[in-house]
Design a protein that fits this description.
The chain has helices at about 5-10, 10-25, 40-50, 65-70, 100-105, and strands at about 1-5, 30, 80, 85. By secondary structure, it is an alpha+beta fold. A hairpin with a 2-residue loop joins strand 3 (about 80) and strand 4 (about 85).
Length: about 110
């Protein structure tokens, strides 16, 4: 089993290539996290639902960055309740970044 980390693998496209390569060789995949913020978590969730070989039911992954951050930078963060992660059908990754909040939080 391979734990795929999109943030380390070069994003969604590169991660999908890894998952597809693993599938072609009979190797299951799951998702790994590096405590991403909302946009990264949304990208990871989309990878999971886009790839049949992401076998998170058999090999639980982790998308738990939001549990470690005090503030969400998204107006509509990915919904995570226990082992269930829910994404929307909104365009793109489905997450609207609160840019005003980001500007107030950035170091000066």
């Amino acid at each position: 089993m391979i734990s795929v980390y999109p943030g380390k693998n070069g994003g969604i496209r590169k991660s999908k290539e890894i998952v597809d390569f693993a599938a072609a060789h009979g190797v299951a995949c799951s998702i790994g996290s590096n405590l991403e913020l909302d946009v990264g978590t949304a990208a990871m969730a989309h990878l999971v639902v886009a790839c049949e070989n992401m076998q998170v039911e058999k090999y639980p992954g982790d998308m738990l960055g939001s549990d470690y951050h005090e503030i969400s930078i998204a107006k509509n963060p990915v919904k995570i309740e226990g082992p269930i992660t829910t994404i929307t059908d909104a365009p793109g990754l489905g997450v609207d970044v609160d840019w005003d909040l980001v500007r107030t939080l950035r170091p000066r």
